[in-house]
Amino acid sequence: MVLDGLGYRWPTGLIGGRPVNAARAVWMLAHGDPGEKYVLHTCHRGEEGCINIRHLYVGDAARNMADMVESGRATIANRGEGCARAKLTREDVRAIRRRYVKGARLPSPGSARALANEYGISVSYLPKLADMDRWAWLDADEAQGHVTT
Asked: Which of 4, 37, 51, 57 has CA 20 to 30 A from 115's CA?
């Protein structure tokens, strides 16, 4: 493993010739590959380069977003359509989640491709929305009684 910035925003290591976030690389060396899970920091200092194994734990996308908000690295104002790069609105995400069924063909003229084209997103993004890997906070906020307008 080589630890270096490698031109990325966060400290990065190379594992198997592939760039990997330094904290993830440390986790992989100590515990193995966490797969699709995120390597998170109890200290909220990942952007500062913390790679202390005692500060690391594994979580899902929703926990990662919650950690970002708790640590002040992200705010509710810049989530969803509040993000300058957002292509979707909250209502778009809800509609996609209602209509998309992983592995099933959608009603004509359809397919996942037709749904993705309708919203200007990639087909590969659909299961990420449906599985709550993206916009995970949306329904979680509403379930907890937070208003999302």
From this structure: 37
Distance separating alpha carbons of residues 57 and 61, to the nearest angstrom: 13
Within a domain: 20: yes
Q: Evaluate whether residue 124 is within a structural domain.
A: yes
Residue 71 to residues 44, 57, 64, 68, 134: CA-CA distances in angstroms? 6, 15, 11, 5, 19
User: Which run of H or E residues covers position 4?
Assistant: strand 2-4
Residue written as token pair 């440390």: 26
Which pair of structure tokens corresponds to residue 118? Answer: 């309708």
- Residue ranges making up the domain that contains 13: 2-59
pLDDT one-digit tens code per residue, 48-106 = 778 899 999 999 988 888 888 787 776 666 778 877 778 899 999 999 988 887 656 55
Q: Is the pTM of this model over 0.70?
A: no
* Predicted local distance difference test score (pLDDT) of residue 35: 92
127 torsion bin: left (phi>0), alpha (psi -120 to 50), beta (else)? alpha
